[in-house]
# Entry
Amino acid sequence: MTGPVQVLVLGFDRPVVTGEVLAELGRLRDAGVVRLLDVLVASRGSDGSFETLDIKANEAGFSGRIVTEILGEPDPLTRTQVIDVTGMPSWSLSDSVPDGTTVVIGLIEHLWARDLAAAVAGAGGRPLEETWLAPDDRARVEKLLGVAESRPG
# Structure
């Protein structure tokens, strides 16, 4: 495996996750953009406990076993678990998922970033942080891009 691997945690207020998300991940896989390594779907109760849910992802060969192994043993979904990624800040699943939320946890290898990861490592670099901008921040970026594009050169 040579591409960067992301732990992607997607939250849903509904207790039922439709196949739309897995279908989109399948489309990205088929396009050669990502490789979906494993998927686990769980719900977090109002008391903070997690319960693994049986989903269609299992039919596609995803058991959630690899996600569970990466997040800790013996059952990372029943306690606070901190992942210590070498050189990166710690991350807690429990701190990331609000009570009453259903989550899809995926391990995704970013195939598009293989050469970038190799170039960074070859130059002696390493990732220090990675995050996704929130919807409000993405809207701000779009607005700022629109302003920048309308300015004379």
User: Anything to note?
Assistant: The helical segments are 20-30, 65-71, 93-96, 114-122, 135-150. The first strand starts at residue 5 and ends at 12. The beta strands are 5-12, 34-44, 50-53, 82-83, 91-92, 101-110.
